[in-house]
Give the backbone structure.
Amino acid sequence: MAGVLRARTRLAFVVTLTFACGFARGAPLYAQTRQPHLEVFLPPPAQLAQIGPLIAAHDMLSTARTKEPLASGFPARLHFLVELWSEGGLTNEVQRRAEYDVLVTYSAMEKKYRVDQLVNERTFSLGKFDRVEDAEGAVARPTRVPIKALHSSRRFYYRVTLDVEILNSSDLDEVNRWLKGDLKPAFKGERDPGTTLARSFRRLASKLLGGGTTQYEARSPDFIVP
């Protein structure tokens, strides 16, 4: 529809560490429930047209479906899609959207979990951790998404969709190259033909461990920016 902005946001994301301290350590309630869930935090009313929302994903590595394949060397990719919606008479419309990823890998040699954020083909390290719970805390740090709301009489809301995916064996070589800074093979799909048997074995292992994709959704309260 006319006037609807569909271009993906190209601004950098900001991880708000000061706000995230409680989330990184895990509040007592979350420690008890350990249920994966998303949260959307709106800016103060006076800043709705100046800054975007904060997105937090809690306990995304705690389920056996994710935790066990991750410990076996299969990376976990968390793909975030954040959309600003406006409410209309008959249908709601997407006004703006942005996407980013968080990649969690485990190194058996170092015995550490590595967490990286991917924004517009740029990598931001969120740290290395001895325990999966600490890596999970890094994933849970709220991220400021630069989708500003619009001055309008219409009502708006943010909708967040998160796909948590265990990458299969065909992705492992590309992930390793990407982590080393070599992006071209990952985008072009160039692979060493001599590793076909190894990839087939790891693909089977990933299925046996229950690897796959799980989707989560969250929505903010409705708001108006006068």
